[in-house]
Amino acid sequence: xxxVPPPTGExxxxxLGQGDDPAVVALAGEHAPIVRAMAQAYTRGKGxxxxxxxxxxxxxxxxxxxxxxxxxxxxxxxxGSARVSGAFRGWTLAxxxxxxxxxxxxx
Length: 107
Prior knowledge:
Strand order of the largest sheet: 1-3-2
Strand content: 5-15%
Structural class: alpha+beta
Distance between the termini: 25 Å
Number of strands: 5
Shape: globular
Radius of gyration: 14 Å
Largest sheet: 3 strands, antiparallel
Number of helices: 4
């Protein structure tokens, strides 16, 4: 699998449809290394090589960081039937499937 640079604040802001908002770009840039460190720890470094990541891990990093950027205060809220959970509670099911491809598990 090809390795690519990890996502930047601009990549994440573009994903959110707010690539022209410098505040969103800056916030995403601050959150990206945190999510990257968590993913690297989860996979014990697999999928990370020479400062780059595999394409599928890149997608996980974009999606997970976007969730954090969309709710940086990590506050729970509800509007009608829509609810947003407060804190980052880990990886989504889809992200877990990707990261588990790299994670070495005890036998």
